[in-house]
Design goal:
The chain is of the alpha/beta class. Helix content is 47%, strand content 14%. The chain binds phosphoenolpyruvate and magnesium ion.
């Protein structure tokens, strides 16, 4: 039997599956049968069992992970918490509900304290779920533990789950929900874990059953035959052989060069990206410098970070994005006004224009780093809407001494006037994550609309084509720096639509490089044309696969 979904990456993996239990329903607000002593004893036993489980977990962890778990064990056994639970049971509340309420009230107190204590509040929620699971005799929610490597099946993974994944034992991921830009897909791409997301409601596979997960075809084969196993093993061996091929520059089969660049969020990740063959940086997200800051970092502080980054790429292109604050990247000091729809609010370039000193300091720091190193620095603005905003940013950047200044295409309006913009900016870089969010009116943070968040949708591809055509007519570079560039089949289509470079999480470079090497430019264009004519994202995927194969 087979299941189908959206594959992330090209990997093939054979392993047994484990399913992540669903989160527990909150205990109903009910009264116990009258035996308070029995309820209290059951809770005490459950607390002891949950603490023992956590202690065993702490012994296997190290560093911060160990400390966090040990702190959780201590909180679980806090006498004040026990007193609160018991008082609630004495008042007639069931054990489950008493645990739920007492922990919730403690959590609220911790959250109000802020900082480190507020972070511990989340851990307390996890402890309470464990105790309630013990009381109900059901599996503990969260990532299952196993000493043997396995493929994890889940509804979808939240960021908190992905932080707990032990990447030595989780060989692959299968999710029922979630699209290509879900947290699961982003994690899988960044860590090179083969994944299939959005397989639908049928992903009920008993724990321990062996499957073949083939991300390239988006197929899960349940309980494979000997022939299917042999076939999967051959494909795994072929990928191992492919990984051993020396890293080359990104190019199509006919020699057309498509530079493959890295998306980075910190200078610390630069060396690893170079080792994976990044030919430069296509998107350096500068938000990390500003996160947690109450005020903007100084010019000198920023300059030191930019110089460190650029020093890894002498003679190569490094595209740095000006601060992109707002919506999914909230920065209180730049914009703390309440907005009903922050994704449609004062974010990106709009926020920078509202805080001219922050923009000025950042561009100054970049100019100084440009002068201090041998890298070819390109600077771009996020969330640019039209020609007027493009003109503002490009002229301002040049006035401050930057050599190459461009804009990101993330708002559909910019794509629709691409012909006006292409002559003004030195380059355009398409941020497909936001461009998809805005084109399909689907919040990228919202799981319930994840199926709309698919850059394969022909509407998004048509906007990319407008940008590609305008760039070609004006002789300007049009890069891609959203998650879409990391999907090998989509990368081919994007090149067919006119993308001149692709930037992605470094772990995806090898697969994209291999896919491009097997396709000529006319073939890529034929696939792009087929995808543009489709009526849906799934239709575009299928049409591209069938075209010029
Ligand atoms: C994008 O929107 O595609 C992009 C690359 O920017 P970010 O994901 O940082 O918003
Ligand atoms: Mg963006």
């Amino acid at each position: 039997m087979e299941l189908h979904g959206v594959g992330v990456g090209r990997g093939v993996v054979i392993a047994r599956v484990l399913t992540m239990p669903e989160p527990l329903e909150d205990p109903v607000d009910g009264q116990h049968a009258g035996d308070a002593a029995a309820e209290k004893a059951a809770v005490a036993n459950a607390v002891t069992a949950a603490a023992a489980e956590l202690t065993a977990r702490a012994e296997k962890a190290d560093g911060t992970g160990k400390e966090v778990i040990e702190a959780a064990v201590q909180m679980a056994q806090d006498p004040m918490l026990a007193d609160d639970v018991n008082a609630r049971i004495d008042a007639g509340t069931t054990g489950e509900r008493a645990v739920f309420e007492a922990f919730r009230s403690f959590q609220e107190q911790l959250t109000a304290l802020g900082g480190y204590m507020a972070e511990r509040a989340t851990d307390l929620g996890d402890v309470s779920q464990r105790i309630i699971a013990q009381l109900r005799g059901v599996p503990v929610p969260g990532v299952p533990e196993s000493d043997v490597p396995f493929i994890l099946i889940a509804r979808d993974l939240a960021p908190a789950d992905t932080a707990l994944l032990d990447l030595d034992t989780v060989l692959g991921l299968i999710t029922r929900d979630g699209g290509p830009t879900s947290h699961t897909a982003i994690l899988a791409r960044a860590k090179s874990i083969p994944a299939i997301v959005g397989v639908g409601g049928d992903a009920a596979i008993a724990d321990g059953i062996r499957v073949v997960l083939d991300a390239a075809s988006g197929t899960v084969t349940i309980d494979p035959s000997d022939a299917q196993l042999a076939d999967a093993e051959a494909r795994i061996a072929a990928r191992v052989a492919q990984a051993a091929i020396p890293i080359t520059e990104g190019a199509l089969a006919d020699g057309t060069k498509i530079p493959l660049l890295a998306n980075l969020g910190s200078p610390k990740d630069a060396a690893a990206a170079v080792a994976l063959g990044a030919e430069g940086v296509g998107l350096f997200r500068t938000e990390f410098l500003f996160l947690d800051a109450q005020t903007a970092p100084t010019v000198a502080e920023q300059q030191a970070q930019y110089t460190e980054l650029l020093s890894h790429f002498a003679g190569k292109k490094v595209v740095v994005r000006a601060l992109d604050a707002g919506a999914d990247k909230p920065l209180a000091f730049l914009n703390d006004a309440h907005e009903e729809n922050p994704a449609l609010g004062v974010r990106g370039l709009r926020a920078l224009r509202a805080q001219p000193q922050v923009l000025r300091d950042q561009l100054h720091a970049l100019k100084n780093a440009q002068d201090a190193t041998e890298a070819e620095l390109w600077v771009m603005a996020p969330m640019v809407a039209d020609a007027g905003e493009t003109r503002f940013f490009v002229e301002y950047g040049k006035e401050l001494g930057l050599t190459t200044v461009g804009v990101m295409a993330e708002v559909p309006s910019l794509a629709l006037v691409a012909d006006q913009v292409a002559g003004l900016a030195d380059f355009v870089s398409i941020g497909t994550n936001d461009l998809t969010q805005y084109t399909l009116a689907a919040d990228r943070m919202l799981g319930t609309v994840a199926s709309y968040q698919d850059p394969w949708h022909p509407s998004v591809l048509r906007l990319v084509k407008l940008l590609g055509d305008a760039g070609a007519a004006a002789g300007r570079a049009v890069g891609i720096c959203g998650e879409a560039a990391a999907d090998p089949q989509l990368a081919v289509v994007l090149v067919g639509l006119g993308a001149t470079s692709l930037s992605m999480t470094p772990a995806a470079l090898a697969d994209v490089r291999a896919e491009l090497a097997g396709i000529t430019l006319p073939q890529a264009r034929a696939k792009a044309a087929a995808a543009l004519a489709a009526e849906s994202a799934a239709g575009a995927r299928a049409a591209a696969a069938a075209a010029a194969a």
